[in-house]
Write a structure and sequence with these properties.
It is a single chain. By secondary structure, the protein is an alpha+beta fold. It has one domain: 2-Layer Sandwich (Tetrahydropterin Synthase, Chain A), CATH 3.30.479. It is 25% helix and 30% strand. The chain has three helices and four strands; from the N terminus they run E-E-H-H-E-E-H. It has a four-stranded antiparallel beta sheet. The two termini are 22 Å apart. The model has no long low-confidence stretch (mean pLDDT 91). It catalyses: 7,8-dihydroneopterin 3'-triphosphate + H2O = 6-carboxy-5,6,7,8-tetrahydropterin + triphosphate + acetaldehyde + 2 H(+). It is an enzyme of class 4 (lyase). Its EC number is 4.-.-.-.
Length: 142
């Protein structure tokens, strides 16, 4: 039997942090906090031969939590990654993507995107921008 399908996994976690937006005119210029939700999606085309999974959900979530734990209960503006840019949801999604991508280099999956939401109706995504990588993630190729 030939299988042409690919697999994708998605995990979610949360963290709480404060931030303020420099050079913004409005309420968000003042220090305030959010309960952020974070999602990450990976793709791959090879299941583990013994267990039959792409990657252990627990392992993927642990790696995501390694990144998120550095943000939890902080003032994001005080972190080195946000000294020259505002800790917007967009920048947080990029920051988490880059940190998680580095933690997944030894795994059988490829990180497709990360998402950060300040609330259920407001979210930002960061994804690979090179054409080949986007195609890989759409098809699920690691």
């Amino acid at each position: 039997m030939t299988r042409n399908g690919r697999w994708r996994l998605r995990v979610r976690t949360d963290f709480s942090a404060a931030h303020q937006l420099r050079h913004y005119q409005g309420k968000c210029e003042a220090l305030h906090g959010h309960n952020f939700s974070v999602e990450a999606e990976v793709a791959g085309d090879q299941l583990d031969a013994k267990v039959g999974y792409l990657m252990d959900f627990k392992d993927l979530k642990n790696r995501l939590n390694q990144v998120v734990d550095t943000l939890d209960h902080t003032c994001l503006n005080d972190l080195p990654g946000f000294s020259t840019c505002n800790p917007t949801s967009e920048e947080l999604a990029r920051y988490i993507f880059e940190a998680l991508d580095a933690l997944l280099q030894d795994s059988p999956v490829r990180l497709c995107w990360t998402m950060v939401a300040e609330k259920d109706s407001s979210m930002a995504f960061y994804e690979r921008c090179d054409h080949a990588s986007q195609d890989d993630c759409r098809r699920g190729i690691s």
